[in-house]
Amino acid sequence: MATQTKAMEQAIKATTIKTGKYLTFTLEEEEYGIGILKVKEIIGMMPVTSVPRTPDFVKGVINLRGKVIPVVDLRLKFTMGEIPYTDRTCIIVVEIDSDTATVLIGIVVDAVSEVLNIRKEEIEDTPKFGTALDTNYILGMAKMEGGVKILLDIDRVLSQEEVIQLENV
Fold it and tell me: What is the DSSP letter of 47?
C-alpha cells in the first residue's frame, strides 16, 4: 500500500514539473527555485513579532498592509543554522495550498537572485538518497550553466500539520 502511494505521489510530482518561470534565491551557497505563480510578493526584512510556543523555524508574524502573515526561516526549516540577517535578506510571500485552505506565508531567504525561464528538458528528477530521506518537497533539479538549482514544491516544504499550526498563529 505504501509503495503504491509513493508511486502515485511521484507520478503527480512528475506532472507538476514543467516549463515555466521560477523565482530563484540562495540559502547558504545553494540556489533554489519556486514556481513564480506561487510567489505573491518579495519584501525586504521587516520587524517580525515572535509568537510563543512555535517551532524554531517559525520566526513569528508580520503585518503586511493590515494582513497578519506567519514567517518561516527556510534556513532553519532545512536545518542549515541561523545567521544574522543582511541587507540582501528577503521575505518571499508565497501562497501555499494545503488540504484545508490556501495560506499566505512569508519565507526568509538569504537573497533573491532572478526569475528564470526553465524548460522541462533542463529539469531532472530528484536523485534517490535512500528511503530514510524525504525529498517530496523537491520538484526536481534544474541543470543550468552555473550548476544545479533545486526546484522546491513550496506546498510540500511544510507538513500539513505545520501549515495548520501556522493558520492558527
Answer: -
130 Cβ neighbours under 8 A, 6+ residues apart = none
Which three cell numbers mark 23?
Answer: 523565482
Q: Rounded to whole angstroms, how far apart are CA atoms 152 and 32?
A: 7
Residue 6, CB half-sphere, CA atoms under 13 Å: how many? 7
At 152, which helix (H) or strand (E)? strand 147-152
CA distance 79 to 56: 10
Task: Say how far apart CA 61 and CA 72 lie, in whole Å.
Answer: 9
pTM of the model: 0.84
Contacts of 93 (CB under 8 A, 6+ apart): 39, 40, 41, 42, 43, 64, 69, 104, 105, 106
Q: In what helix (H) or strand (E) does residue 31 lie, and over which residues does it extend? A: strand 30-35
| Alpha-carbon gap, residue 49 to 156, rounded angstroms | 25
Structural contact between residues 59 and 108, judged by C-beta atoms closer than 8 angstroms: yes
81-99 confidence digits (pLDDT tens): 899 999 999 999 999 987 7
Round to whole Å and give the CA distance between 12 and 16.
7
